[in-house]
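Final paragraph of the annual report: two paired records, presented back to back.
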Amino acid sequence: MSTGVIIVLIVIVAVVVIGAAVLLNLRGRMSFGGGRDLKKRFGPEYERTVARHDGDAQAAERELAERVERHGGLKEQPLEPAVREQYATRWAAAQERFVDSPREALTEADRLLAELAGSRGFPDGEQYEEQLAALSVHHADHVHGYRRVHRLAHARVTADGDGRADTEEMRQALIEARALFEDLAETKQLQRS
């Protein structure tokens, strides 16, 4: 073989290898949803994650893609009608309790959301961060309400009252968390029927 043919073969092999590497890179990004797809899938959760990474969209996208890889295949378990009704009754009781005992109502709502998510097949409530990550993959638009309720329910209250959330903040958190409750308890579908 002549030197020219060898050079042409080397160039062709190099182009093929580089092309394959580029395709694998693009395919990997697409399997994780890519930036635009992640932004669409996660909505406000995407923006919160970017903010938590100090504006580093690539770091946020890596985290969100990892969540999708870990929890994207999770299949939510259906609720039996009697179980759904029990959860709905407990949620209504927590909301009613809010008037007299806002902190206790918030604590009950936090516990109830953790239990309900566990009943639907999400990681156990004892693993809050893991449960929240899984919920963010499947209920990204409503997971922030649970995050707020959990934070406020577990806020340490000092003797002078520092760290104590005001009643309005707790009320807003409970209202925001209700959307996740309705999604998990499938009560919106029932109301439309």
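The closing record of the year follows.
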Amino acid sequence: MHELPLVFFTVLAQASAGLLILSVIHQVISGKNASQSTLFKMGIAALVIVGIAGCSAILHLGRPFRAMNALFGAGRSPMSNEIISCAIYGGLLFVSLAVTYLRPQLKGLQLAARLLTAVAAVVLLILIPKVYTIETIPQWHTVFTPLQMVLAAFTAGGALALIWQPTRTNFLIMVIATIGSFLMTPSYMAHLSATAPAMLQKGMGFFDAKMALYCLALVMAVVSYKKKVLPMAACSGIVFILAELAGRIAFYDLWSIGM
């Protein structure tokens, strides 16, 4: 169970980043027609999710009060870069929400703050996988590691975005991310069979659970989009997060002792 806090941290941080990025894309596309109230609610949701992710990461530390030591590894330590980028993303997200709430008339400043936060979210999505592309762990040192983590941002984050913005763009991004994850799975399994067959065998239950939950979540997302049933969209987002958690447990078990 030692890696379980990292499971929640990585999945939730990526879901938050995906949700925020999609909200900003919608704002840029819609321009003045974008609902500031909706954008604010999505920002709050993204902040809460990344806040939970950050708390999960702290629980992984042997001595949580020494978390600030991560600053000393900035630039040379992938884990320090990951932690710092998450803190910057969360901080910018808070600032953008504060600007929206305190200065609702300053639309240009709000957009600039959200765009900067979206850039920080993209950086976070790039830096998290770099912690795990380790040459000495061949089952992790593969293109499938960053690919599955980036896709997670837009399966879970995309489904969550449909709660507030059931737009065609958000729906298509979520579907494409889900199909992309399905399509990479056979090649990913082949790679794991060649590099860590025993560990793969032990973790197949979690991989199978991920695929089954994907199917359920995708069906729920399609129904919610077609029928405009918002509670179904929320359920779809939750199930996608559960699917990514199952897959991430399997991912960590490829190196560590099984959870």
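The domain at 4-253 is CATH 1.20.1630.10 (Formate dehydrogenase/DMSO reductase fold). This concludes the annual technical report; the extension proposal builds directly on these records.
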